[in-house]
Amino acid sequence: MEFCPKCGSMILVDKDKAACANCGYKMKKKPKIEASEKIENKEAVPIIKEGQDETNPVVDMVCPKCKNKKSYFWTSQTRAADESETKFYKCTKCTHTWRIYK
Q1: Could you confirm whether 53 is annotated as catalytic?
Q2: Helix, strand, coil: what percent of the chain each, to 5?
Q3: Any idea where the domains of the chain sit in the sequence?
Q4: pLDDT digits (tens, 9 = 90+) for 3-26
Q5: Catalytic residue among 37, 43, 82, 85
């Protein structure tokens, strides 16, 4: 940003000229305007491979498909906020997923 040496107002820079908006002072040469930006390296996003994403707790729940006795579970609000949440289960053996409403 350049300021007028006569009145102290800001110099307006056009395509090929630079002049004071207040007193009309014209600069002999156009000021060089530079902009810089510092870009920081962002951390890499980890890639989760299939089978590594099972971080949910394991509980004793019989799978209706293969009758395995262990399942992962998680809950989600699938209906209105004043209704209870839905509990999802996923078999640790066959990966069959089912839900239970309360």
Answers
A1: no
A2: 0, 30, 70
A3: 1-32, 58-100
A4: 777 787 776 666 667 777 777 777
A5: 82
